[in-house]
Amino acid sequence: MKLLTDRPRPYVAHPEQQPLAHATLDVSLPSGHAATSFAAAVVLARFAPRWAVAPLFVVAALVAWSRVYVGVHYPSDILAGALLGVAVGLLVLAAQRRRWRRRPADAGGATAPRRPGGALRRRPPAPPRG
């Protein structure tokens, strides 16, 4: 995607600025760090305890903003990366939900859990015949 946008990094567009770090590609949009950190935050937030959700997104935002701080991205690069990451995270969760819905029952009569990490639910016993 970076090669499609061909947006130069800040230190390439403004050579007078000295970045704290250099990147392997000289194209900037979107930020891969922002995309990865927000995708991870979305997926982990689905399975994390409620108290941990906000810190996950705070860490993702700090990782993203650090790329502007070190001089390798513009703020719009990290915004685009964050939006891309949230979209990827939601797609991963949607694919995971589809996979869990298709999971067949095992031979012991247990059905697949509706939520990962949940205990298997046993089918109710059949009513007596006769």
Compute the separation of the termini in Å: 66 Å
Mean pLDDT across residues:
76
> Whole-number radius of gyration?
22 Å
Uncertain spans:
none
Q: Which strand order do you get reading across the main beta sheet?
A: 1-2
How does the helix and strand content classify structurally? mainly alpha
Query: How many strands appear in the DSSP assignment?
Result: 2
Morphology: elongated
Number of helices: 5
Fraction of residues in helices? 55-70%
The largest pleated sheet is described as: 2 strands, antiparallel
Strand content: under 5%
H/E element sequence:
HHHHHEE
What do you see in this structure?
This protein has 5 helices and 2 strands; from the N terminus they run αααααββ. With 130 residues, it is mainly alpha-helical. The chain has a two-stranded antiparallel sheet with strand order 1-2. It is elongated, with a radius of gyration of 22 Å. The N and C termini lie far apart (66 Å). The mean pLDDT is 76.
